[in-house]
Structure formats: C-alpha cells, structure tokens
Write a structure and sequence with these properties.
The protein has 2 domains: 148 residues, Rossmann fold, CATH 3.40.50.1100; 215 residues, Rossmann fold, CATH 3.40.50.1100. It is 42% helix and 17% strand. It has 16 helices and 14 strands. The model has no long low-confidence stretch (mean pLDDT 94).
Length: 431
C-alpha cells in the first residue's frame, strides 16, 4: 500500500488530493442544514465517542434488544465442496433480520440524548426502515420512513412490518422511485424541520459526520469477529467478503481488519448486464464518475452532465447510484478489491448455501456469497469469512416468482380468491 489509509475522516474527508488521488466525502448541503449537521457532530463526539454512560446503554440494547453477538458459523458442507474453509457471520439473526439495527438503535438513542422527539429515515430494501421503526418503538420516538414507490412494491413484507411497528411509510413517487429518491425526500424533509427532527441515515454515505457515525455503530460486527474467530483458528482469516451497496455492512465487517493483511473483497450488484441502467456497479465502470450528490463527494453512476443514472439490481438494497466515500478511498489506494455478481449468480449462491448450510440469505448477502463462490475457484485451503448481512424472508415476493413462478402465481391466485370470497364481519350484534 503506497498511500495513507484513512480509517476515519479528517475534516470530513477520506484521502488527500494529490496527483491522481482524491478526497472523498465532505459536507455539500444547503446552508439551512449546517446548524443541524454541526449539532449532530457535537452530539456524536459528546455521546458516541466520549460518554461511558451512552456506551453502556448501547451495549445493553445490543445484548438485550438486538440479540448480539450474532453467530459465526462454520459452513462445513460448503467448505468440503469448495476446498476452502468457509465461515458465515450471520447478521440475519439480529432483531429485524439484518445488520441495519446496529446503526438504527445507535442513532435513535443518540437522537434521544440530544433531545429530539421525531425520527425520519430513508430505506431501499426496507431493512433500514424496519430497523429504525423497531428502534423508535423501543425508545418511544415518532418515526417517518421515506421509501421509493418501486421498492414498496418489491418489499411489501417490510412495509407491512414497519407500519405494524408504528411507523408512517411515505411513498416517494419521483425519479426512479428507489433509494436515491427516498434519500432526496428525507433530506428535503430534514431541511424543513430540523429543530425536533433527527435524520437516521442508513449507510456510510451522505454529508459528514454520517459516514463516520454509521461505520462506528456497524463496527460492532468486526469487533465481535476478532473474538469469535479464536474459536475456529489462530490469527486472522485469509479473505473477507461482503456485499456493497452504500457500504454500511461492508465497512462494519471490515473495520477492525483494515490495518491487517487480510484480503478484503466487496461485491457489487452486476444486475443483468454491463450497460447503463442494467446494474449498480460503481467500481471499474465506464459510467461511474467522480461527483457530488446528496451531500458528499464520491463515485456515482452518472451521465456526462453529472445527472445520476438509473440503476438496476434484483436486490432493492444494492441498487444505489453512489458509494460511501470511505469505500471509494479504500478502493483508490488499493486496500479493498471489488467485483460484481449478476442477478443469476446471486440466485445461484442463495440456493447453494440454502441447500448445503440451511441458511436463507437476503438477496444482498447472496451477492457476497456469489463472490465467495467465484473466489473459491481460484484459491485453496484459505480461511474465508462471508458477511451474511440479512435474512432472505423479506425477499419472498422476488425470489418465489423468479424461482417458482407457476407455483407462486397459483398460491397468490388462491389467496386473492379466498379474500374476495370471505365475508366481511359486521359491526355490532345483529338481532
């Protein structure tokens, strides 16, 4: 590694502009939001980094509400087939079914300490929205979640559960109706009302200090790993693999190993092809450019005028046009490798690990598993850990119609028939 590695941002930026290097991150927001961001930065240092009381309360919530530590599982059957030692860090067993709760409960607790009464959040696949809704229910906060209309259709189970937890889900009809549009609406809402409102951002992106805050809360994953691996082997693993959308699960998974010699690999959404609008791969993509959007500088899939391009992935949690600034920096200095997995490869990996290990991974996590299948072909007898960032329950409306189309259509038709032919209970007692 030739260049300095930024484990935390310096004055809001990762990296130093020099030669062909860039500084990623920053705080490119409307002036009206600078007081709110300054207040957030002060709260982050006062409570998250400095307060022993806050850390103890958060640790209790992690243990008693989230259900941490999540297990590290030795994938014995897959290991035998793939000629490598495969281990799975199963974040899917955390409350709400994914890693997102690590950050959500931390930020909602921070909001409460700062005297805020209302929480807003954005969500793509729905896991961050679900986690934020659960955290708000636990800590007694009002919750509003912005979600793209397209994602609402793809992830109805999560929408249902968010509302069950007491959150208001706002459908975003603008743009491509996906995560980037939900982020825009959340930022717009925050700019209108920031005095009592706290914006819980779900990934390691956005304006400073969000990339640092989210990574800090998600680093509980790698912190646990440093202890759990001792049960299986001495020293560090050889390879660690995580899926990459914005970057929250990958940076949380990699954080305590960034200074090590472990080979770190991020897997992006290859979608259905290499053309514009067919994927969400930002690295080594001719359609990816350095730009500024949604409050920070990083790599974005965009046209020559800087307008964000539409993206596609079978996974609603990976189809974001940008990538977190720290990940962009770590890629530029050569610390993290990136590859992509097609929809078909993610589905293949999902089925392989379901049948060999009894693990139902989320479609996002299945991209990481697809990366593991690829890497395992080129190495032998390596210790490989894959981050299973979430469970696949939420994806049934996508996976079922893809893998068992006729049976799924028959099931839905029968459900609709029964609903239409069920008498609606009358109110009161009829005499």
């Amino acid at each position: 590694m030739k260049h300095k590695m930024f484990l935390k941002s310096k004055k809001g930026f990762f990296g130093i502009p020099k030669g062909d290097l860039h500084a990623f991150g920053g705080q490119y927001m409307p002036e009206i939001l600078y007081p709110a961001l300054k207040e957030l930065e002060e709260g982050y240092y006062k409570y998250v980094l400095k307060s022993k009381e806050f850390k103890e309360e958060l640790h209790t919530l992690y243990r008693e509400f989230v259900g941490r530590p999540t297990p590290l599982i030795y994938a014995k059957n897959a290991s035998k087939i793939l000629n490598n030692e495969i281990y799975l860090k199963f974040e899917g067993l955390a409350n709400t079914g994914a890693h997102k709760i690590n950050n959500a409960i931390g930020q909602v607790l921070l909001a409460k300490k700062m005297g805020k009464t209302r929480i807003i959040a954005e969500t793509g696949a729905g896991q961050h929205g679900l986690a934020t809704s659960a955290a708000c229910a636990k800590l007694g906060m009002e919750c509003v979640v912005f979600m793209g209309a397209r994602d609402i259709k793809r992830q109805f189970p999560n929408v249902f559960n968010m509302e069950l937890l007491g959150a208001k889900v706002v459908s975003v009809e603008s743009g491509s109706q996906t995560l980037k549009d939900a982020v825009n609406e959340a930022l717009r809402e925050w700019s209108k009302e920031s005095k009592n409102t706290f914006y819980v951002l779900g990934s390691t992106l956005g304006p400073y200090p969000y990339p640092d805050i989210v990574r800090e809360f998600q680093s509980i994953i790698s912190k646990e790993l440093t202890k759990q691996t001792r049960k299986f082997f001495k020293g560090n693993p050889d390879i660690m693999i995580a899926c990459v959308g914005g970057g929250s699960n990958s940076l949380g998974f990699f954080n305590h190993y960034l200074k090590s010699q472990v080979r770190l690999i991020g897997v992006e959404a290859g979608g259905r092809g290499s053309g514009a609008g067919e994927n969400a791969a930002r690295m080594d993509n001719k359609n990816a450019h350095l730009g500024i959007a949604q409050g920070y500088k990083s790599l974005f899939l965009s046209d020559k005028y800087g307008n964000l391009l539409e993206t596609y992935s079978i996974s609603a949690g990976l189809d974001y046009a940008g990538i977190g600034p720290q990940l962009a920096h770590l890629k530029e200095i050569g610390r993290i490798e990136f590859l992509s997995a097609l929809d078909s490869e993610a589905l293949e990996a999902l089925q392989f690990f379901a049948k060999t290990e009894g693990i139902l991974a989320a479609l996002e996590s299945s991209h990481a598993l697809a990366g593991a299948l690829k890497i395992a072909k080129s190495v032998k007898n390596k210790k490989i850990i894959v981050n299973i960032s979430g469970r696949g329950d939420k994806d049934i409306f996508i996976t079922a119609k893809t893998l068992q189309k006729e049976r799924w259509a028959e099931f839905l038709s029968q459900e609709i028939y029964e609903m239409q032919n069920t008498l609606t209970p009358t109110k009161g007692i009829q005499k």
